Structure to design on (583 residues):
């Protein structure tokens, strides 16, 4: 995000900055600024006779960085966020990638670049490949590449100056301001008591956001130039709900936000009491509230929030940022760990959503339009070896509890039949090997392509459940690239065409006796909960942190009355007045 004139304004004498709030809440504290994450890298040529020594210098630095990360992961304290171990291991995995080191060594040899220059050159190429991906979670993995490269560069330079001096800061409410924060940096910063995190880079699935959620600490990311505009010791107010940061506020502004902070804490305390309360509307309609997760460790947060299951577990994390494919055993262990954590609660695992721009490391992205290319289930069916391995792992893991398989980006009936055939092949293969697995596993599909939503009836008959992916559905219905800031204002979840497709899918599922849920961003937005109830939705899946806000709305709503109001508005092709639904 670049800083526009609308992003910086003066409130009285207070500098106001904006970004993307990824963890709600208010924080008031002292800024502690991390110096630039990117290092100044020397560029020079290496004499031919010195090339072997340069190779050894590079390899030794990689080994040292790997050992440092492994040591951090192995010595995590009991109170450390569980996500940190997984994120540290992702960075170890990247350093273990022989392709990356081979490519850097090749640059050293062929171009006679010094190790730092070669490393930054190849790192930038890899980061750019990830940054061009359509999927937001995978796009932000470019940060992993940058952070790993920078860690090796720090070893090569012997620098640790990027860390703030926590001992020099007297305040016990520190707000970390950084270009970006890696998992390893998070570990080194654990000595401070943090009130919030602010970064120039990042989005909802960046490491800063993931760890901040696990710590329940307000965070605003994608601020563009916050590190350049804020100085050590500045007094900051962070509004994680609106994504606003106030620098050196006046006393009246400070007093107002202290009141907001106190009110928010009282609200969260009251919400916490709803954790074990049933999600039932005033007229007795039972609503299922489940959680979306991206890492196995996040299942703990889902349970802590009172989730009734996992409604969406994205499996891509196992496949990305590595030179080899995860084995059947590795996948089995990852899926089984989530199932064991959730106990008797169901776990819905989405099959691999790769392809087009979201490629494995040894593939090239060649699609002219990645969003419409060979991705998700199309990619899996075109690569049966990869798909069959995943299906076998899922079947094996389902012995430990209820697993539901979710197919992404379905548009054709033959795709569902092909997945059923793949499941049958996997069953036969496991039987031949004498490997136990659960039978009669439930199969569902994502409703995210308009063609499927329009012609949903046969899908509802064939499948066991449906899950509406509103993020892509809105993108495809409105022909809006949700990652393109130039048209972001046209991305409209409340567009009548979008709502009619959601309503149609829910109604058809209801008639067929098949459960329908929403797992996109709309499900976790408490402002539209009543509208979704009015569409007839009885299944929501969202980030664990959003669950209690949505439950509160459900317990205060009258479902059947909302259905009458929403149906009337849709029939008149009117935009739904969310405020009117709260009355």
């Amino acid at each position: 995000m670049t800083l526009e004139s609308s992003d910086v304004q003066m409130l009285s004498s207070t500098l106001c900055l904006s970004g993307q709030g990824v963890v709600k809440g208010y924080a008031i504290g002292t800024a502690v600024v991390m110096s630039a994450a990117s290092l100044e890298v020397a560029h020079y040529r290496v004499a031919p006779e010195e090339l072997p020594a340069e190779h050894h210098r590079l390899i030794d630095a990689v080994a040292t960085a790997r050992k440092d990360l492994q040591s951090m992961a192995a010595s995590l304290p009991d109170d450390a966020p569980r996500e940190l171990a997984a994120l540290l291991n992702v960075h170890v995995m990247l350093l273990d990638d022989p392709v990356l080191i081979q490519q850097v060594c090749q640059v050293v040899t062929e171009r006679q670049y010094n190790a730092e220059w070669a490393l930054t050159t190849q790192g930038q190429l890899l980061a750019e490949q990830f940054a061009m991906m359509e999927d937001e979670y995978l796009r932000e993995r470019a940060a992993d590449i940058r952070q790993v490269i920078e860690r090796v560069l720090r070893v090569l330079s012997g620098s640790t100056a990027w860390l703030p001096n926590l001992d020099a800061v007297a305040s016990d409410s520190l707000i970390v301001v950084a270009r970006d924060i890696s998992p390893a940096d998070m570990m080194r910063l654990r000595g401070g008591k943090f009130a919030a995190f602010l970064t120039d880079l990042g989005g909802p699935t960046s490491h800063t956001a993931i760890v901040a959620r696990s710590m329940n600490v307000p965070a605003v990311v994608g601020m563009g130039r916050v590190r350049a505009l804020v100085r050590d010791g500045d007094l900051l107010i962070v509004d994680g709900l609106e994504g606003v940061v106030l620098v050196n506020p006046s006393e009246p502004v400070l007093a107002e936000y202290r009141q907001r902070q106190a009110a928010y804490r009282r609200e969260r305390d009251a919400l916490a009491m709803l954790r074990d309360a049933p999600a039932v509307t005033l007229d007795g309609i039972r609503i299922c509230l489940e959680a979306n997760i991206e890492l196995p460790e996040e299942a703990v947060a889902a349970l802590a929030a009172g989730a009734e299951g996992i409604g969406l577990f994205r499996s891509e994390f196992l496949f990305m940022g590595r030179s080899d494919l995860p084995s059947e055993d590795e996948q089995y262990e990852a899926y089984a760990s989530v199932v064991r954590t959730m106990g008797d609660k169901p776990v819905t695992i989405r099959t691999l959503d790769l392809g087009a721009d979201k490629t494995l490391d040894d593939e090239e992205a060649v699609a002219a339009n990645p969003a419409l290319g060979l991705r998700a289930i199309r990619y899996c069916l075109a690569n049966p070896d990869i798909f069959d391995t995943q299906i076998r792992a899922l079947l094996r893991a389902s012995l430990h509890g209820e697993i539901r398989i979710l197919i992404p980006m379905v548009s054709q009936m033959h795709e569902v039949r092909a997945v059923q055939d793949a499941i049958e092949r996997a069953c036969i293969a496991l039987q031949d090997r004498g490997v136990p697995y659960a039978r009669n596993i439930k199969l569902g599909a994502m409703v995210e392509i308009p063609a499927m939503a329009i012609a949903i009836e046969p899908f509802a008959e064939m499948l066991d459940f449906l899950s509406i992916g509103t993020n892509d559905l809105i993108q495809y219905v409105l022909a809006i690239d949700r990652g393109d800031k130039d048209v972001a204002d046209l991305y409209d979840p409340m567009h009548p065409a979008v709502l009619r497709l959601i309503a149609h899918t829910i109604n058809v599922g209801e008639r067929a006796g098949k459960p329908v849920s929403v797992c996109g961003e709309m499900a976790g937005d408490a402002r539209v909960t009543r509208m979704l109830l009015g569409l007839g939705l009885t299944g929501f899946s969202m980030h664990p942190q959003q669950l209690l806000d949505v439950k509160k709305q459900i317990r205060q709503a009258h479902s059947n009355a909302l259905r009458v109001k929403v149906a009337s508005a849709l029939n008149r092709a009117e935009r739904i007045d969310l405020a009117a639904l709260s009355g």
